[in-house]
């Protein structure tokens, strides 16, 4: 039955819902990319923003529009597509909920964007208190989250329906993965919803005068770390399930893939304090416990790396490859659907290593609040994840619009991926290096009164501007390809690749025992966070009034 389902195209109406999400995502790419380019130019010291636009204003645009809007819209569009493909067409009711979710998210995005453009909310994408934004900015972001819950509801409903219709059977792998990501997202977003609704909103409306800064940051990072895995897991879905089919191989192990996703559900959330290792008010013992939990969440990524190598090697050897690395030659290097996400995988090796450095309690002192961290997340989020999203777009957009990726577009797509990689190598490389020399993140250009140390950073800042400019060219190429695939490419049947496992193993049904997994997730969260929160509330210094520093 699953085999038949894999031949069917995604229903046209579901495709429209997914495409609506992709339009917003790619508009976000255009706006956010431009803001990014301007930032690197300002930081090179050779350019000033016109018309009274502030550096922190465009930095906020960049973070919100790319980190929150592009990602959430792309992920929801992708997850709806894979679930519709493998678990079946959405019912009218499910589709309606999806559309309401989409419009709630879009309304929230527009609201937040207007407040940033009016310069009422230059508080960056992390909106740390005591920086205080206009209430409508917080309301806008809340709507984005509420809308994403509605989209998530569609995934959950479809999953439940599939299980009812197929009793005793393991759900389709990629539907299972989309469900895990949705459950993680819902548990995680409760944290940011709590700080916005209970703290930041009443405070920016003037209903209360002060805010407990440490509590609000801790609630933010309770959400902020799983947020980055919410971005990563859809890329992993493509790596585990879609790439094997594209190369003509098989998924190494269905059960291993499910286990790694369950581990992400368990360990993604009780680790947020690794973003606060240098903040006061949290006992070092609890920081250390969350550092250990962070190292546990590295394991499913190592499992993923292992399983990808196994898939590639297996395929290569099945084609007669010899020697230790002979299989590399058998991979389809001319196929953009493969090579662009593959560069993403490759970049995730140094990116992940950088993450492990960040998480190492003492080493965090060297890198925290330096531009090294910005370099880290431009390799993880803006390379590994985003190149995979582009790789997905190259076949999914034409599949949904009934068109095909032509040879010419395929070639341009490879050029796009390579251009991105060159730009990012300059930009992220220079950020890592300057960070180690102490260059701060989240800061506009300054010579710091002619300090000798700041002078050392300037060449790296120029390298960042060079990288940023190359990246902007790659963004223009991506937008051009997107418009082609959405509106102009020749009509045809673009394949929706869904891989199958190497063996006929039956994944253990315990993986679908959500009471168990959500139960353990909640216990781990309570374990990691109860005492820190009690401390932060009981021993809180007087609350802070709001600041508008821009
Ligand atoms: Fe991170 C800060 C730790 C992963 C994103 N991170 C950030 C911020 C962002 C971010 C946005 O502990 C900044 C937030 C802010 O604004 O302040 N991060 C980690 C760790 C991991 C990690 C331990 N981060 C990510 C991912 C992100 C992301 C993924 C986005 C998508 N990060 C931190 C810490 C901080 C931090 C601290 C705070 C720093 C501070 O002080 O502020 C791990 O999950 C990484 C594990 C990954 C691996 C790599 C596995 C490799 C694979 C590829 C295999 C390749 C193949 C192809 C098979 C161990 C799966 C190769 C084929 C060949 C032929 C060679
Ligand atoms: Cu983190």
UniProtKB/TrEMBL annotation:
Protein's recorded name: Cytochrome c oxidase subunit 1
Keyword Heme: yes
Membrane topology recorded in Swiss-Prot or TrEMBL: Multi-pass membrane protein
CDD domains in the record: ba3-like_Oxidase_I
Localization annotation: Membrane
Annotated TM spans: 20-42, 54-75, 96-118, 138-160, 172-200, 220-243, 255-273, 285-312, 338-357, 377-397, 418-438, 458-483, 516-534
Every Cytochrome oxidase subunit I profile domain range: 16-487
Membership in a protein family: Belongs to the heme-copper respiratory oxidase family.
Keywords per UniProt: Electron transport, Heme, Iron, Membrane, Metal-binding, Respiratory chain, Transmembrane, Transmembrane helix, Transport
Keyword Lipid metabolism: no
Alphabetized InterPro entries for the sequence: Ba3-like_Oxidase_I, Cyt_c_oxase-like_su1_dom, Cyt_c_oxase-like_su1_sf, Cyt_C_Oxase_1, Cyt_c_Oxase_su1_BS
């Amino acid at each position: 039955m699953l085999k038949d389902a894999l031949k069917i195209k995604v229903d046209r109406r579901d495709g429209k819902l997914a495409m609506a999400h992709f339009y917003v995502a790619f508009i976000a790419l255009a706006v956010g990319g431009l803001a990014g380019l301007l930032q690197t130019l300002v930081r090179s010291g050779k350019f000033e923003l016109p018309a009274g636009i502030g550096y922190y204003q465009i930095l906020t645009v960049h973070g919100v529009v790319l980190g929150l809007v592009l990602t959430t819209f792309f992920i929801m569009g992708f997850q709806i597509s894979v679930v519709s493909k493998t678990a079946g067409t959405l019912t009218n009711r499910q589709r309606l909920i999806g559309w309401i979710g989409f419009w709630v998210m879009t309304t929230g995005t527009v609201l937040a964007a207007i407040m940033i453009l009016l310069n009422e909310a230059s508080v960056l994408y992390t909106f740390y208190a005591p920086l205080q934004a206009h209430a409508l900015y917080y309301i806008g972001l809340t709507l984005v989250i509420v809308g994403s819950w509605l989209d998530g509801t569609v995934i959950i409903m479809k999953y439940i329906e599939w299980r009812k219709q197929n009793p005793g059977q393991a759900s389709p792998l990629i539907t299972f993965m989309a469900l895990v990501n949705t459950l993680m997202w819902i548990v995680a977003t409760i944290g940011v919803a709590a700080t916005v609704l209970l703290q930041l909103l009443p405070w920016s409306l003037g209903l209360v005068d002060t805010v407990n800064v440490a509590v609000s940051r801790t609630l933010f990072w309770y959400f902020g770390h799983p947020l980055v895995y919410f971005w990563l897991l859809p890329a992993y879905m493509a790596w585990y399930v879609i790439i094997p089919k594209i190369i003509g191989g098989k998924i190494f192990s269905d059960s291993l893939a499910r286990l790694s996703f369950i581990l992400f559900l368990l360990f993604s959330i009780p680790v947020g304090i690794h973003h606060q290792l240098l903040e006061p008010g949290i006992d070092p013992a609890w920081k250390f416990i969350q550092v250990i939990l962070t190292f546990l969440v590295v394991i499913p990524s190592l499992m993923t790396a292992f399983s990808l190598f196994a898939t590639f090697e297996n395929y290569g050897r099945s084609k007669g490859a010899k020697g230790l690395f002979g299989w590399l030659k058998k991979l389809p290097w001319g196929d953009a659907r493969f090579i662009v996400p593959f560069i993403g995988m490759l970049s995730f090796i140094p990116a992940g290593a950088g993450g492990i450095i960040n998480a190492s309690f003492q080493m965090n002192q060297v890198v925290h609040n330096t531009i090294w961290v910005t370099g880290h997340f431009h390799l993880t989020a803006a390379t590994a994840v985003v190149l995979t999203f582009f790789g997905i777009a190259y076949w999914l957009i034409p599949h949904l619009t009934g068109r095909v990726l032509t040879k010419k577009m395929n070639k341009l797509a490879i050029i796009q991926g390579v251009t991105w990689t060159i730009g990012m190598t300059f930009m992220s490389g220079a950020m890592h290096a300057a960070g180690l020399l102490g260059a701060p993140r989240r800061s506009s250009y300054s010579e710091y009164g002619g300090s000798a140390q700041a002078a050392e950073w300037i060449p790296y800042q120029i390298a960042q501007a060079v990288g940023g400019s190359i990246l902007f060219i790659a963004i223009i190429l991506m937008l051009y390809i997107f418009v082609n695939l959405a509106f102009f490419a020749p009509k045809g049947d673009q394949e929706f690749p869904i891989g199958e496992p190497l063996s006929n193993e039956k994944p253990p049904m315990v993986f679908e025992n959500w009471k168990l997994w959500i139960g353990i997730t909640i216990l781990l969260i309570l374990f990691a966070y109860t005492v820190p929160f009690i401390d932060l509330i009981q021993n809180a210094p007087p609350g802070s009034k709001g600041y508008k520093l821009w």
